[in-house]
Design a protein that fits this description.
Elements lengths: L10 E5 L4 H12 L3 E6 L5 H12 L3 E5 L5 H14 L3 E6 L14 H28 L6 E5 L14 H21 L5 E7 L8 H5 L1 H9 L10 H11 L10 E4 L7
Parallel strand pairs: 1-2, 1-4, 2-3, 4-5, 5-6, 6-7
Helix pairs in contact: 1-2, 1-8, 3-4, 4-5
Family: Belongs to the short-chain dehydrogenases/reductases (SDR) family.
Keywords: NADP, Oxidoreductase
Organism: Saitozyma podzolica
Length: about 260
């Protein structure tokens, strides 16, 4: 028998699932047979990405616009997704905001701009899924937060104190929710990527010397492709991860090992 992950029959909800790591997760979930619901805030390409994934993998893939900071709107949307796309088996909270500038220049607006989506918006989606599963007595729910190694280390040369703090908060939030929801059969984990070739790290694309500097920090000597992060998320969503909860899966090319 061939060892493979099968998510068929499940709908996986992915915030920010139309670009970067989120898009790679959407594609690999669909490849594993899952139907996909992408939640986005304003990206003009989200609908096209969803249609492309649906066509390529012969699954249902629908994009929904929503502000994840609106708790009631998120709960209503999860009910809609359940009826539109199918039973929700997992949620991947991937959307996030990064403001990079020195701490002495940070403002309350910068704080809110990051903690609102990076912590509160993540919580609203996890909560909406947990409420839905509790209502339907579903005991196999999966929640994955896309965090960052920045939640554990300062990242030399990257001034982003509130982004780092928000990801640190996310790591502890995952542990706490894993504890609270264990008796419902809900597993909550974090993926913590290192440096990944995404729009958020546009500086690495624009500056070859900076890319070389950060590549050299990893044991593998290179920046990650988004697809190399997505596989770990698919594993955490699968039936092969039934004893994994409250933990942080670090996929950083060995960067934090030294």
């Amino acid at each position: 028998m061939v060892w493979q992950i099968d998510l068929s029959g499940k709908c996986i909800v992915i915030t920010g699932g139309n670009r970067g790591i989120g898009k790679a997760i959407s594609e690999q979930c669909a490849q594993a047979g899952a139907h996909v619901a992408i939640i986005y805030r304003s990206s003009p390409d989200a609908q096209d990405v969803a249609k492309s994934i649906a066509s390529q993998y012969n699954v249902r893939c629908v994009a929904y616009q929503c502000d994840v900071s609106d708790q009631k709107a998120v709960q209503d949307l999860f009910q809609k997704i359940y009826h539109d796309v199918g039973p929700i088996g997992g949620v991947v909270c991937n959307a996030g905001v990064q403001v990079g500038k020195p701490a002495l220049e940070m403002t309350k607006e910068d704080y809110n701009a990051q903690f609102d989506p990076n912590v509160w918006g993540v919580f609203t989606c996890a909560q909406a899924a947990a409420l839905l599963w509790k209502q339907r007595d579903y005991k196999n729910g999966r929640v994955v937060f896309v965090s960052s190694i920045s939640g554990s280390i300062a990242n030399q040369g990257v001034p982003q104190c509130f982004y780092n703090a928000s990801k640190g908060a996310l790591n502890v939030l995952a542990k706490t929710l894993a504890m609270e929801w264990a008796d419902q059969g809900i597993l909550v984990n974090c993926l913590s990527p290192g440096f990944v070739d995404t729009d958020m790290n546009q500086q690495l694309r624009d500056d070859p010397e900076k890319k070389k500097f950060y590549s050299a920090k990893t044991m593998l000597g290179r920046i990650s492709d988004p697809s190399e992060q997505a596989g770990s998320v698919v594993f955490l969503l699968s039936d092969y991860a039934t004893y994994t909860t409250g933990t942080q899966l670090i996929v950083d090319g060995g960067l934090t090992c030294w």
